[in-house]
Write a structure and sequence with these properties.
Elements (H helix, E strand, L loop, with lengths): L5 E4 L17 H14 L3 E4 L1 E2 L5 E2 L2 H14 L4 E4 L9 H4 L11 E5 L3 E4 L2 E3 L3 H14 L2 E6 L2 H12 L8 E6 L7 H8 L7 E6 L4 H11 L2 E4 L6 E3 L2 E2 L3 H14 L7 H8 L7
Parallel strand pairs: 1-2, 1-12, 2-5, 6-9, 9-10, 10-11, 11-12
Antiparallel strand pairs: 3-4, 7-8, 13-14
Helix pairs in contact: 1-2, 1-8
Amino acid sequence: MDKLIISCCICGAEVTKENNPAVPYTVEEIAREAKSAYDAGAALIHLHVRWDDGTPTQDKGRFQECVDAIRKVCPDVIIQPSTGGAVGMTDLERLQSTEITPTPEMATLDCGTCNFGGDEIFINTDNTINNFGDIMKERGIKPECEVFDKGMIDLALKAAKKGHIDYPIHFDFVLGVQMTATVRDLVFMATSIPAGCTWTATGIGRTSWDIAAATIAMGGHVRVGFEDNVYMSKGVLAKSNGEMVERVVQMAKLMNREVATPAEAREILGLKPLEA
């Protein structure tokens, strides 16, 4: 079983300080939360960025500022910009996060359209998936295929068959949005991907800790953080992203699963070693 890669999604695009005052907006706050996660054991920071008032943005300059600030305090962490952005953004807006310097090692690639609730529809057509895959290949960026249900795994595999995504694929199972988040669902997703592929899983809200525990036991990798959940337990807000990562580390120790360093995570994910 591979060592456990812990990814931390430190702010997302939808959660706000009204949900938890520790949710970061400013460059300084984002660097603070990234460092708290890194110090606790996260090898990978999944990054959305905000303007200072909390408005989500895919602005290239803002991503550059935030990545530079994170690099100063976490020099070897894997930084994975989101190309999801927020509901309503165009494809070109969303791809700005891959235009920073140096070119990101990884970025997210959402592999299907998703209902986020009410009238909020996050649109990812076949053409969007293929175009994002092609652009990431051209730029030397490994995609993390974000999938919210089994059909999105199939769409990712269809894109790979056509050459838009390279094997081995790394998947991120986001459970509890469009598909329920139970151990049954997690097993179904994990056994639906080809041999040799890697996977991370997260549960939204109160399912976060159940999915984390099951994922550790099954040999997958875990994502936690304010994007997905702001509570440690019912009614108890997390003080930081680092506090969430610490809990995953404790779970891993109980199950005798070692936690991967950033260098070890790069090896598991097939990324190049970080240049000195």
